[in-house]
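Look at a sample.

——
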Amino acid sequence: MSDLAAYLAAVVLVALAAWAIAIERPGARHPIRWAGLAFVLCEGCSMALLAPGTVALSDTGADGLSVIALGDTVRTAALSFLMLLACLVNPRPARRRSPAVQAVLAVWLQVAMVLLFIAARPTLQTDGTLTAGPAGRWPLAVRVALFAAYAIWSLIELFVAVLPQARLAATGPLRWGGRLVLAAVCVGVVWTLWSYDDIVHVLRYGSVDGSEDTVSNALGAVCATLVATGSLIGKWSVTFQAAARWLRLCRCYLVMGPLWSALRTAMPQIAFPEGGRPLLAGWPAGIEFALYRRVIEIHDGRLVLRAYHHPEVASWLEQAGPSEVDTPRGVVSRRADAKTIPADADADAALVEAATIAAALENMRRGRRFTATATAEATSRKASTVSVDVIPTDLDAEVQWLSRVAWAFRRSPMIPVLLERLRAEEG
């Protein structure tokens, strides 16, 4: 169980570092990101090296002491990168926390750890226990205490540096990511404090576990999970938002299809030449290109149809009274056989626009034009039914607006009724 926790945590951390390196743009320089990646990679490698299963390879002829020394060196380097990360994240680090000072301290710490290990002259027992040589208890105990103290210091500095970032993050996912990193720091503190009993054990019995025990590996696995989740939550949020936007644009593209097809069939001249970016290329850029081209063609068709607008469409819809209309989400429908629910301005305005386009297409097929005065009056009357709040102010709002119009153009039962009245009026 201890080996499983250690190796799983190592795989999670190394995979996180490999994924972050893979998506890094060539030539980009992000010291904070690279310091974090170095810490994650070193910590993952040290957990794999100090796992009981790895240390047990000494039974097969491997040098167990070298494996333990290498694991401790890599783990100490991970702490140095953690301290460097705290210095870089903190916008105004104190002089004692400057990156240059910490780099020098990291070198001296590595030298001290190696010298203390040599001075302790330990031997590795068959059960994985590291036993100090003659007069080696104090050097080994000082080595354990020095590492634990440096780990606690690094974690406290990182907590102090990340805490304001977690509070002031611009978006919810970034705030949650910072909180998870802070939780990982707290677990790391508990993980480090768990090793303080090793100091007493070394001084009393002259021995210490050469590998991490079950509790330490379990805490390491929890810490690795929190670090990975906190690091990825912001990226996952961006990915989910891009996926949600792509699905929304695809839905608008399909909803606008019937209206766009009707206008292109009646007026082939509004169609742009085929080609350009494929629909699924550069997700979501491909669907945006196709959708915005569809918006432009619909607007061109609406401009051509201005001479065929019937001046009485809006008044006919008012006279028709409430009716059940299928509308997309966010638009309130009205029922004639139940208590009337006031429709919102979007639904009314979209229905008027859809009915105007349908009547204009019918007039175009029959060759019926209207005078400029009648068309202007119809346009003014239609504009008076549209609230200022539903007038599109940007391209995305225009897409949503035309989607409502297209939905009403295809699904509203008022459109066939209006066209029948139009044909009856002509007859």
